[in-house]
UniProtKB/TrEMBL annotation:
InterPro entries: ArAA_b-elim_lyase/Thr_aldolase, Beta-eliminating_lyase, PyrdxlP-dep_Trfase, PyrdxlP-dep_Trfase_major, PyrdxlP-dep_Trfase_small, Tryptophanase_CS. GO terms for biological process: aromatic amino acid metabolic process. GO terms for molecular function: carbon-carbon lyase activity. Keywords: Lyase, Pyridoxal phosphate. PANTHER family: BETA-ELIMINATING LYASE-LIKE PROTEIN-RELATED (PTHR32325), TRYPTOPHANASE (PTHR32325:SF4). The modification N6-(pyridoxal phosphate)lysine is found at residue 257. This is Tryptophanase.
Length: 456
Protein backbone atom coordinates (compact mmCIF):
# COMPACT_ATOMS: atom_id res chain seq x y z
CA UNK A 1 0.00 0.00 0.00
CA UNK A 2 1.19 3.51 -0.82
CA UNK A 3 -0.69 5.41 1.89
CA UNK A 4 1.22 5.77 5.13
CA UNK A 5 -1.49 5.97 7.77
CA UNK A 6 -1.40 7.36 11.30
CA UNK A 7 -0.28 4.27 13.25
CA UNK A 8 -2.83 4.79 16.03
CA UNK A 9 -6.53 5.29 16.58
CA UNK A 10 -7.96 8.13 18.61
CA UNK A 11 -9.55 7.41 21.98
CA UNK A 12 -9.83 10.88 23.44
CA UNK A 13 -10.33 14.15 21.57
CA UNK A 14 -9.91 17.82 22.40
CA UNK A 15 -12.02 20.39 20.52
CA UNK A 16 -10.25 23.31 18.85
CA UNK A 17 -11.76 26.79 18.72
CA UNK A 18 -12.56 28.65 15.51
CA UNK A 19 -12.13 32.42 15.26
CA UNK A 20 -12.81 34.87 12.42
CA UNK A 21 -10.13 36.78 10.53
CA UNK A 22 -11.41 40.03 12.05
CA UNK A 23 -11.05 38.58 15.55
CA UNK A 24 -7.54 37.36 14.76
CA UNK A 25 -6.46 40.83 13.59
CA UNK A 26 -7.48 42.20 16.98
CA UNK A 27 -5.87 39.28 18.86
CA UNK A 28 -2.58 39.85 17.04
CA UNK A 29 -2.62 43.56 17.79
CA UNK A 30 -3.28 42.90 21.49
CA UNK A 31 -0.40 40.39 21.57
CA UNK A 32 2.04 42.98 20.21
CA UNK A 33 2.32 40.87 17.05
CA UNK A 34 4.14 38.19 19.02
CA UNK A 35 2.51 34.74 18.68
CA UNK A 36 4.07 33.66 22.01
CA UNK A 37 1.71 36.17 23.65
CA UNK A 38 -1.49 34.82 22.05
CA UNK A 39 -3.80 32.72 24.25
CA UNK A 40 -3.66 29.10 23.07
CA UNK A 41 -7.45 29.07 23.04
CA UNK A 42 -7.34 31.59 20.20
CA UNK A 43 -5.21 29.25 18.08
CA UNK A 44 -6.82 26.76 15.71
CA UNK A 45 -3.73 24.73 14.81
CA UNK A 46 -0.74 25.22 17.04
CA UNK A 47 2.60 24.71 15.32
CA UNK A 48 4.54 26.96 17.69
CA UNK A 49 6.55 24.01 18.93
CA UNK A 50 6.85 20.24 18.97
CA UNK A 51 7.99 20.51 22.58
CA UNK A 52 5.73 19.15 25.31
CA UNK A 53 2.84 19.03 22.86
CA UNK A 54 2.80 15.29 22.10
CA UNK A 55 -0.30 13.18 22.53
CA UNK A 56 0.48 10.44 25.03
CA UNK A 57 -0.54 6.85 24.41
CA UNK A 58 -2.96 4.86 26.55
CA UNK A 59 0.07 2.97 27.91
CA UNK A 60 1.65 6.26 28.96
CA UNK A 61 -1.57 7.39 30.64
CA UNK A 62 -1.76 4.14 32.52
CA UNK A 63 1.87 4.71 33.54
CA UNK A 64 0.70 8.03 35.00
CA UNK A 65 -1.63 6.08 37.30
CA UNK A 66 1.15 3.65 38.25
CA UNK A 67 3.71 6.36 39.08
CA UNK A 68 5.48 5.78 42.38
CA UNK A 69 5.59 9.10 44.22
CA UNK A 70 8.13 8.11 46.87
CA UNK A 71 10.55 10.95 47.53
CA UNK A 72 13.63 8.75 47.31
CA UNK A 73 14.29 5.59 45.32
CA UNK A 74 10.88 5.45 43.63
CA UNK A 75 10.18 2.42 41.43
CA UNK A 76 9.35 4.82 38.60
CA UNK A 77 12.86 6.29 38.78
CA UNK A 78 14.43 2.88 38.22
CA UNK A 79 12.16 2.22 35.25
CA UNK A 80 13.11 5.64 33.84
CA UNK A 81 16.81 5.07 34.51
CA UNK A 82 16.84 1.72 32.79
CA UNK A 83 14.91 3.06 29.75
CA UNK A 84 17.42 5.92 29.37
CA UNK A 85 20.39 3.58 29.89
CA UNK A 86 19.07 1.21 27.24
CA UNK A 87 19.31 4.00 24.66
CA UNK A 88 22.30 6.03 25.84
CA UNK A 89 24.44 3.33 27.46
CA UNK A 90 25.55 6.01 29.94
CA UNK A 91 26.38 5.24 33.57
CA UNK A 92 24.82 8.18 35.39
CA UNK A 93 21.26 9.27 34.57
CA UNK A 94 20.07 12.48 36.18
CA UNK A 95 16.39 13.39 35.73
CA UNK A 96 15.52 17.05 35.21
CA UNK A 97 12.24 18.87 34.67
CA UNK A 98 13.17 19.77 31.09
CA UNK A 99 16.11 20.12 28.73
CA UNK A 100 17.30 23.53 29.79
CA UNK A 101 17.47 22.42 33.43
CA UNK A 102 19.98 19.75 32.38
CA UNK A 103 21.87 22.43 30.41
CA UNK A 104 21.83 24.85 33.33
CA UNK A 105 23.32 22.24 35.66
CA UNK A 106 25.94 20.98 33.20
CA UNK A 107 27.16 24.39 32.04
CA UNK A 108 27.13 25.90 35.54
CA UNK A 109 29.59 23.17 36.54
CA UNK A 110 31.88 23.24 33.49
CA UNK A 111 31.36 26.74 32.02
CA UNK A 112 32.60 30.16 33.09
CA UNK A 113 34.67 33.01 31.71
CA UNK A 114 37.51 31.92 29.46
CA UNK A 115 35.73 28.72 28.39
CA UNK A 116 34.72 28.02 24.80
CA UNK A 117 32.08 25.62 23.49
CA UNK A 118 31.37 24.42 19.96
CA UNK A 119 28.38 22.70 18.37
CA UNK A 120 26.95 22.09 14.92
CA UNK A 121 24.38 24.68 16.06
CA UNK A 122 23.48 25.46 19.65
CA UNK A 123 19.78 25.72 20.39
CA UNK A 124 18.88 29.10 21.90
CA UNK A 125 18.50 27.89 25.51
CA UNK A 126 21.76 25.96 25.30
CA UNK A 127 23.61 29.00 24.01
CA UNK A 128 21.94 31.16 26.68
CA UNK A 129 22.95 28.76 29.45
CA UNK A 130 26.55 28.81 28.22
CA UNK A 131 26.70 32.58 27.80
CA UNK A 132 25.05 33.08 31.20
CA UNK A 133 28.16 31.57 32.82
CA UNK A 134 30.42 34.03 30.95
CA UNK A 135 31.64 31.38 28.48
CA UNK A 136 31.36 31.66 24.70
CA UNK A 137 29.49 29.41 22.25
CA UNK A 138 30.37 28.85 18.58
CA UNK A 139 28.31 27.23 15.83
CA UNK A 140 30.44 25.23 13.39
CA UNK A 141 27.79 24.02 10.96
CA UNK A 142 28.88 22.43 7.70
CA UNK A 143 28.65 24.88 4.77
CA UNK A 144 25.86 22.96 3.05
CA UNK A 145 23.63 23.33 6.12
CA UNK A 146 23.65 27.10 5.61
CA UNK A 147 21.93 26.95 2.22
CA UNK A 148 18.17 26.39 2.54
CA UNK A 149 17.72 25.65 -1.17
CA UNK A 150 20.32 22.86 -1.46
CA UNK A 151 19.02 19.31 -0.94
CA UNK A 152 21.47 17.09 0.92
CA UNK A 153 20.95 14.12 3.22
CA UNK A 154 22.78 15.35 6.33
CA UNK A 155 22.64 19.11 6.55
CA UNK A 156 23.05 19.00 10.32
CA UNK A 157 26.66 17.79 10.15
CA UNK A 158 29.38 19.73 11.92
CA UNK A 159 32.28 21.13 9.88
CA UNK A 160 35.12 18.93 11.16
CA UNK A 161 37.88 21.14 9.73
CA UNK A 162 36.36 24.11 11.52
CA UNK A 163 36.33 22.04 14.72
CA UNK A 164 40.06 21.26 14.37
CA UNK A 165 40.84 24.97 13.82
CA UNK A 166 38.60 25.92 16.74
CA UNK A 167 40.51 23.58 19.06
CA UNK A 168 43.87 24.96 17.83
CA UNK A 169 42.70 28.54 18.28
CA UNK A 170 41.20 28.30 21.76
CA UNK A 171 43.25 25.43 23.23
CA UNK A 172 41.89 22.06 24.29
CA UNK A 173 42.27 22.96 27.98
CA UNK A 174 39.78 25.82 27.52
CA UNK A 175 37.15 23.71 25.75
CA UNK A 176 35.20 21.72 28.34
CA UNK A 177 32.82 20.13 25.83
CA UNK A 178 31.68 19.83 22.21
CA UNK A 179 27.99 19.38 21.43
CA UNK A 180 26.17 17.78 18.51
CA UNK A 181 22.51 18.76 18.37
CA UNK A 182 20.54 15.86 16.86
CA UNK A 183 18.58 16.73 14.84
CA UNK A 184 19.81 20.27 14.30
CA UNK A 185 16.74 22.24 15.35
CA UNK A 186 18.00 25.76 14.66
CA UNK A 187 19.31 24.69 11.24
CA UNK A 188 16.03 23.23 10.00
CA UNK A 189 15.64 19.98 11.96
CA UNK A 190 18.28 18.45 9.70
CA UNK A 191 19.94 15.19 10.71
CA UNK A 192 23.56 14.54 11.60
CA UNK A 193 25.11 11.49 9.91
CA UNK A 194 26.68 8.64 11.84
CA UNK A 195 29.86 9.34 9.88
CA UNK A 196 29.93 12.88 11.23
CA UNK A 197 29.21 11.78 14.81
CA UNK A 198 32.07 9.28 14.50
CA UNK A 199 34.48 11.88 13.06
CA UNK A 200 33.62 14.56 15.61
CA UNK A 201 33.99 11.98 18.36
CA UNK A 202 37.44 10.95 17.08
CA UNK A 203 38.65 14.57 17.03
CA UNK A 204 37.31 15.11 20.54
CA UNK A 205 38.93 11.92 21.84
CA UNK A 206 42.28 12.87 20.27
CA UNK A 207 42.11 16.17 22.13
CA UNK A 208 40.68 14.76 25.34
CA UNK A 209 37.49 16.84 25.05
CA UNK A 210 34.15 15.19 25.92
CA UNK A 211 31.44 15.05 23.26
CA UNK A 212 27.81 15.42 24.33
CA UNK A 213 24.66 14.98 22.29
CA UNK A 214 21.86 17.48 22.64
CA UNK A 215 19.60 14.53 22.09
CA UNK A 216 16.07 16.02 21.98
CA UNK A 217 15.21 14.42 18.63
CA UNK A 218 17.54 11.42 18.70
CA UNK A 219 14.96 8.95 17.29
CA UNK A 220 14.09 11.17 14.31
CA UNK A 221 17.82 11.54 13.65
CA UNK A 222 18.31 7.77 13.84
CA UNK A 223 15.47 7.16 11.39
CA UNK A 224 17.07 9.53 8.86
CA UNK A 225 20.31 7.57 9.24
CA UNK A 226 18.38 4.37 8.53
CA UNK A 227 16.80 5.91 5.43
CA UNK A 228 19.79 7.78 4.06
CA UNK A 229 23.15 6.45 5.24
CA UNK A 230 24.76 3.44 3.68
CA UNK A 231 25.02 0.40 5.89
CA UNK A 232 22.09 1.23 8.19
CA UNK A 233 19.07 0.01 6.20
CA UNK A 234 18.96 -3.33 7.96
CA UNK A 235 19.68 -2.06 11.46
CA UNK A 236 16.86 -1.36 13.90
CA UNK A 237 16.31 2.24 14.98
CA UNK A 238 17.17 1.23 18.54
CA UNK A 239 20.53 -0.15 17.39
CA UNK A 240 21.21 3.05 15.45
CA UNK A 241 20.34 5.15 18.51
CA UNK A 242 22.67 3.04 20.65
CA UNK A 243 25.49 3.51 18.15
CA UNK A 244 24.91 7.29 18.01
CA UNK A 245 25.15 7.56 21.80
CA UNK A 246 28.12 5.19 21.96
CA UNK A 247 30.36 7.85 20.38
CA UNK A 248 29.36 10.45 22.99
CA UNK A 249 30.35 10.89 26.62
CA UNK A 250 26.93 12.10 27.68
CA UNK A 251 23.74 13.83 26.67
CA UNK A 252 21.31 16.55 27.60
CA UNK A 253 17.73 15.77 26.73
CA UNK A 254 14.39 17.45 26.58
CA UNK A 255 11.99 14.52 26.97
CA UNK A 256 9.29 16.91 25.72
CA UNK A 257 10.34 15.95 22.21
CA UNK A 258 11.35 12.36 21.45
CA UNK A 259 10.22 10.87 24.75
CA UNK A 260 6.64 11.75 23.73
CA UNK A 261 5.72 13.44 27.00
CA UNK A 262 4.57 16.85 28.14
CA UNK A 263 7.37 17.50 30.63
CA UNK A 264 10.76 16.08 31.56
CA UNK A 265 14.40 15.76 30.63
CA UNK A 266 17.72 14.30 31.65
CA UNK A 267 21.43 14.75 31.87
CA UNK A 268 23.32 11.51 31.21
CA UNK A 269 27.05 11.07 31.58
CA UNK A 270 29.88 8.65 32.26
CA UNK A 271 32.35 10.79 34.20
CA UNK A 272 31.74 10.01 37.87
CA UNK A 273 33.31 13.13 39.32
CA UNK A 274 31.31 15.38 36.98
CA UNK A 275 28.15 13.37 37.69
CA UNK A 276 28.58 13.93 41.44
CA UNK A 277 29.03 17.68 40.96
CA UNK A 278 25.93 17.80 38.75
CA UNK A 279 23.90 15.75 41.24
CA UNK A 280 24.84 18.13 44.03
CA UNK A 281 23.60 21.06 41.99
CA UNK A 282 20.48 19.10 41.04
CA UNK A 283 19.61 18.70 44.71
CA UNK A 284 19.90 22.46 45.22
CA UNK A 285 17.95 23.51 42.13
CA UNK A 286 15.69 20.68 40.90
CA UNK A 287 15.17 18.05 43.59
CA UNK A 288 16.52 14.77 44.91
CA UNK A 289 18.56 12.60 42.53
CA UNK A 290 15.76 10.10 41.89
CA UNK A 291 13.13 12.61 40.76
CA UNK A 292 14.93 15.81 39.69
CA UNK A 293 11.94 18.14 39.60
CA UNK A 294 9.54 15.57 38.17
CA UNK A 295 6.75 13.51 39.67
CA UNK A 296 7.13 9.72 39.68
CA UNK A 297 4.30 9.55 37.16
CA UNK A 298 6.27 11.74 34.72
CA UNK A 299 9.22 9.35 34.94
CA UNK A 300 6.88 6.44 34.11
CA UNK A 301 5.49 8.26 31.07
CA UNK A 302 9.01 9.04 29.81
CA UNK A 303 10.11 5.41 30.19
CA UNK A 304 7.11 4.25 28.18
CA UNK A 305 7.55 7.04 25.59
CA UNK A 306 11.14 5.96 24.97
CA UNK A 307 9.91 2.50 24.01
CA UNK A 308 7.26 3.90 21.66
CA UNK A 309 9.43 6.47 19.91
CA UNK A 310 11.80 3.91 18.39
CA UNK A 311 8.87 2.04 16.80
CA UNK A 312 9.48 2.18 13.07
CA UNK A 313 5.80 2.49 12.08
CA UNK A 314 5.65 5.56 14.27
CA UNK A 315 8.84 7.05 12.82
CA UNK A 316 7.83 6.31 9.25
CA UNK A 317 4.54 8.14 9.80
CA UNK A 318 6.27 10.95 11.68
CA UNK A 319 8.94 11.69 9.07
CA UNK A 320 6.48 11.21 6.19
CA UNK A 321 3.92 13.65 7.59
CA UNK A 322 6.51 16.45 7.70
CA UNK A 323 7.67 15.56 4.19
CA UNK A 324 4.04 15.54 2.97
CA UNK A 325 3.52 19.13 4.11
CA UNK A 326 6.88 20.09 2.60
CA UNK A 327 5.95 18.60 -0.79
CA UNK A 328 2.66 20.53 -0.90
CA UNK A 329 4.42 23.81 -0.17
CA UNK A 330 7.29 23.19 -2.61
CA UNK A 331 4.90 22.27 -5.43
CA UNK A 332 3.24 25.68 -4.93
CA UNK A 333 6.55 27.49 -5.21
CA UNK A 334 6.92 28.24 -1.51
CA UNK A 335 10.57 28.43 -0.45
CA UNK A 336 11.40 26.11 2.45
CA UNK A 337 14.54 24.51 3.81
CA UNK A 338 15.06 21.45 1.67
CA UNK A 339 14.78 18.62 2.21
CA UNK A 340 12.16 18.83 5.00
CA UNK A 341 13.56 18.11 8.48
CA UNK A 342 12.35 15.68 11.11
CA UNK A 343 9.97 17.72 13.25
CA UNK A 344 9.14 20.84 11.30
CA UNK A 345 8.95 22.69 8.02
CA UNK A 346 11.01 25.86 7.90
CA UNK A 347 9.82 28.52 5.48
CA UNK A 348 12.64 30.66 4.10
CA UNK A 349 11.20 34.10 4.82
CA UNK A 350 13.96 35.95 2.95
CA UNK A 351 12.74 34.38 -0.29
CA UNK A 352 9.05 34.36 0.74
CA UNK A 353 9.00 38.13 1.35
CA UNK A 354 12.13 39.50 -0.38
CA UNK A 355 10.78 43.06 -0.23
CA UNK A 356 11.10 43.13 3.58
CA UNK A 357 14.67 43.92 4.74
CA UNK A 358 16.10 41.71 7.50
CA UNK A 359 16.06 44.56 10.01
CA UNK A 360 12.28 44.62 9.56
CA UNK A 361 12.01 40.93 10.43
CA UNK A 362 10.49 39.16 7.40
CA UNK A 363 10.02 35.98 9.45
CA UNK A 364 7.87 37.81 12.00
CA UNK A 365 5.79 39.25 9.19
CA UNK A 366 5.13 35.84 7.59
CA UNK A 367 4.39 34.30 11.01
CA UNK A 368 1.76 36.95 11.79
CA UNK A 369 0.20 36.65 8.33
CA UNK A 370 -0.21 32.88 8.71
CA UNK A 371 -2.00 33.38 12.02
CA UNK A 372 -4.22 36.10 10.62
CA UNK A 373 -5.15 34.07 7.55
CA UNK A 374 -5.94 30.75 9.20
CA UNK A 375 -5.43 30.80 12.97
CA UNK A 376 -2.22 28.80 12.65
CA UNK A 377 0.53 29.62 15.12
CA UNK A 378 4.11 29.30 13.84
CA UNK A 379 7.41 30.55 15.21
CA UNK A 380 9.99 32.97 13.82
CA UNK A 381 13.51 31.55 13.89
CA UNK A 382 15.53 34.39 12.48
CA UNK A 383 16.72 37.80 13.54
CA UNK A 384 14.05 38.19 16.22
CA UNK A 385 15.29 35.02 17.92
CA UNK A 386 19.00 35.19 17.13
CA UNK A 387 19.69 38.80 16.07
CA UNK A 388 22.17 40.80 18.10
CA UNK A 389 23.27 44.44 18.12
CA UNK A 390 26.69 45.86 17.35
CA UNK A 391 28.30 48.68 19.36
CA UNK A 392 26.25 51.27 17.47
CA UNK A 393 22.97 49.48 18.08
CA UNK A 394 22.76 48.20 14.50
CA UNK A 395 21.23 44.75 14.02
CA UNK A 396 23.63 41.88 13.38
CA UNK A 397 21.16 39.59 11.63
CA UNK A 398 20.79 35.85 12.12
CA UNK A 399 22.27 33.46 9.55
CA UNK A 400 18.79 32.71 8.16
CA UNK A 401 15.30 34.20 8.39
CA UNK A 402 13.01 31.24 8.97
CA UNK A 403 9.43 30.54 10.00
CA UNK A 404 9.07 27.20 11.71
CA UNK A 405 5.96 25.08 11.45
CA UNK A 406 6.72 22.53 14.17
CA UNK A 407 4.44 19.52 14.09
CA UNK A 408 3.38 18.13 17.50
CA UNK A 409 3.76 14.35 17.72
CA UNK A 410 0.63 12.23 17.16
CA UNK A 411 -1.68 15.28 17.49
CA UNK A 412 -2.87 16.39 14.05
CA UNK A 413 -4.27 14.31 11.21
CA UNK A 414 -3.65 14.56 7.49
CA UNK A 415 -6.64 16.90 6.96
CA UNK A 416 -5.24 19.33 9.53
CA UNK A 417 -2.01 19.32 7.54
CA UNK A 418 -3.93 19.86 4.26
CA UNK A 419 -5.54 22.90 5.85
CA UNK A 420 -2.15 24.25 6.99
CA UNK A 421 -0.84 23.98 3.42
CA UNK A 422 -3.94 25.73 2.05
CA UNK A 423 -3.54 28.68 4.44
CA UNK A 424 0.15 29.13 3.67
CA UNK A 425 -0.45 28.95 -0.09
CA UNK A 426 -3.05 31.72 0.31
CA UNK A 427 -0.60 33.92 2.27
CA UNK A 428 2.04 33.27 -0.38
CA UNK A 429 -0.33 34.43 -3.15
CA UNK A 430 -0.68 37.78 -1.36
CA UNK A 431 2.94 38.04 -0.20
CA UNK A 432 3.52 41.41 -1.86
CA UNK A 433 1.19 42.98 0.71
CA UNK A 434 3.20 41.77 3.73
CA UNK A 435 4.67 44.56 5.84
CA UNK A 436 7.82 44.77 7.94
CA UNK A 437 7.92 45.14 11.73
CA UNK A 438 9.89 47.07 14.31
CA UNK A 439 10.49 46.08 17.92
CA UNK A 440 8.89 48.32 20.55
CA UNK A 441 9.86 46.22 23.59
CA UNK A 442 12.51 43.56 24.16
CA UNK A 443 14.14 41.72 27.09
CA UNK A 444 17.94 41.54 27.32
CA UNK A 445 18.05 37.72 26.75
CA UNK A 446 15.84 35.32 24.75
CA UNK A 447 13.87 38.34 23.57
CA UNK A 448 11.63 36.44 21.15
CA UNK A 449 9.50 35.08 24.00
CA UNK A 450 8.30 38.48 25.21
CA UNK A 451 9.14 41.11 22.56
CA UNK A 452 6.42 43.40 21.22
CA UNK A 453 6.26 44.76 17.69
CA UNK A 454 4.71 47.48 15.54
CA UNK A 455 3.86 47.17 11.86
CA UNK A 456 5.82 49.54 9.65
N1 LIG B 1 17.87 21.64 22.78
C1 LIG B 1 17.12 21.66 21.65
C2 LIG B 1 17.72 21.21 20.36
C3 LIG B 1 15.79 22.07 21.71
O1 LIG B 1 15.07 22.08 20.59
C4 LIG B 1 15.25 22.50 22.96
C5 LIG B 1 13.90 22.98 23.05
C6 LIG B 1 16.07 22.44 24.09
C7 LIG B 1 17.37 22.01 23.96
C8 LIG B 1 15.58 22.87 25.45
O2 LIG B 1 14.67 21.96 25.97
O3 LIG B 1 12.53 23.27 26.16
O4 LIG B 1 12.88 21.15 27.43
O5 LIG B 1 14.09 23.19 28.06
N2 LIG B 1 13.23 23.32 22.05
C9 LIG B 1 11.86 23.78 22.02
C10 LIG B 1 11.51 24.17 20.62
C11 LIG B 1 11.52 24.81 23.03
O6 LIG B 1 10.42 24.75 20.44
O7 LIG B 1 12.27 23.90 19.70
P1 LIG B 1 13.48 22.43 26.94
Amino acid sequence: MKTIIEPFKIKSVEPIRFTTKEERKEILKNAGYNPFLIHADDVLIDLLTDSGTSAMSSEQWSGIMKGDESYAGAKSFYRFESAVKKITGDKFIIPTHQGRAAEKILFSVIGGKGKYFAANTFFDTTRANIEFTGAEAFDLLNEIGKHPEIRAPFKGDMDVDALESFIKKYGRENIPLVVLTVTNNSGGGQPVSMKNIREVSAICKKNNIPLFLDACRFAENAYFIKLREEGYQNKSVLEICQEMFSYADGSTMSAKKDALVNIGGWLSLNDEELAMKCRNLLIVTEGFVTYGGLAGRDLEAIAQGLEEVVDEHYLQYRIRSIEYLGEKLISNGIPIIEPPGGHAIYIDAKRFAPHIPVDQFPGQSVTCAIYEEGGIRACEIGSVMFGKYDKNGKLIPAMMELVRLAIPRRVYTQSHIDYVAEVIIEVFKNRDKLKGFEIVYEAPMLRHFTAKFREI
